[in-house]
Amino acid sequence: APRCVEGEPDLATLEALTPWERLACYGNRTLTLEGVYGCGGCGGVFPGIFEPGWLAYPLEFDLLSIEPQDRIGPIALHFPPDGTAPPPAGSIIRVTGHFDDPAASECQVSPGETPTPVDQQSAELYCRERFVVEDYEVLGTDEDFPTS
Q: What is the pTM assigned to this prediction?
């Protein structure tokens, strides 16, 4: 059974749950979280076909963390192309968003140099577990944000 917590979860609570537990506990409910945005020094490429890219691509660089210098347990944020642009790295933000985005029903996941499709049910569940940003407010800047 998922380890759901009563009431409104904070970032630490969500970081302690598996992606499936987050979806099972909070569904498409709008949640508000606070943390530091960004992934100092992140980068890379993962071959394959991932559609829609903003939701399905497996490398995640839009992270919300309690302590980004520890690089432990961040939640990945996903910004829809028709929504707001990401804030500058190192911003302390209050973000509203949800899991179980309707776009998940269209997800296609085919990893590899020679893309091998994942079955549709698994691809959809994978995308439903992503936290999709509705809006955010910048509260300040983390002066200790790691840049590499």
A: 0.93
